[in-house]
Amino acid sequence: MSSAVIQLIVLAAIAIFLILRLKNVLGTRDGYEKPVVLDRPTPAERRNFEVIEGGPDRDIIDHVPEGSDAAAALAQMKRVEPEFSVAQFLQGARSAYEMILMAFETGDLEKVRPFLSPDVFAAFEQAVAARKAQGLDVHAEFLGLRELVLSEAKFDTATREAELTVRFGAELISSAQDAAGTVVEGDPRAARKQRDVWTFARTMGNADPNWLLVATGG
After folding, report:
1. Alpha helix (H) ranges present in the chain?
2. Is 203 helix (H, G, I), strand (E, B) or coil?
3. Is 110 helix (H, G, I), strand (E, B) or coil?
4. How far apart are CA 147 and CA 169, in angstroms?
5. The whole model's pTM is what?
6. Cα(93)–Cα(208) distance, rounded to whole angstroms?
7. Beta-strand pair 192-203/161-177
8. Which domains, ranges and CATH numbers included, belong to the chain?
9. 183 near 136, Cβ under 8 Å?
10. Which string of b and e fits 58-67 if b means at least 16 CB within 10 Å?
11. pLDDT surpassing 70 at residue 110
12. What would the pLDDT profile of 145-165 be if each residue is shown by its tens digit?
């Protein structure tokens, strides 16, 4: 047998050996096999990594209970006027309360007229006039606000009229003296607590950003 034939036999034997070894290692495939897919997280696993959109509005539920009528009214206000902020409204209400309360105590109502509805201005004006008719001179000092709570919110979708009711708790020094200088009401040296429930109204989407005080109570 020639050397060339011997080499061919050796090479064939080697090829058969390699094929058998590969078959043992890789196995065989019969019929259709699904393509290999990298493991993917299940929906439950993905949930921790997803960005949650459309969640509760903290600007609303930080001030009124979630799911309440007040929360629904505030959400409607924001749909009409997206830039409306409950927190900013309450900041403004804090300042308005001190300014209006002190204007009433001292009888200087003209400077707060733009923030009062005609009915509220008339009621305040009548009370101030009654004090003046008695010859009383009122001295007052605002010490601070201890409570500021948004207690109610209403919204009329037809008129876009919004009403927000706020409960205030303040401390102030207030006294009234007659013409002779005798204190007839209050104490000029002792603080007293003042509690009020005021309702502010405004048409949402209106160019005028001012809220009007439309109702007062204790």
Report:
1. 3-26, 43-46, 58-61, 69-80, 86-106, 118-133
2. strand
3. helix
4. 4
5. 0.72
6. 16
7. antiparallel
8. 66-217 (3.10.450.240)
9. no
10. eebbebbeee
11. yes
12. 999 999 999 999 999 999 999
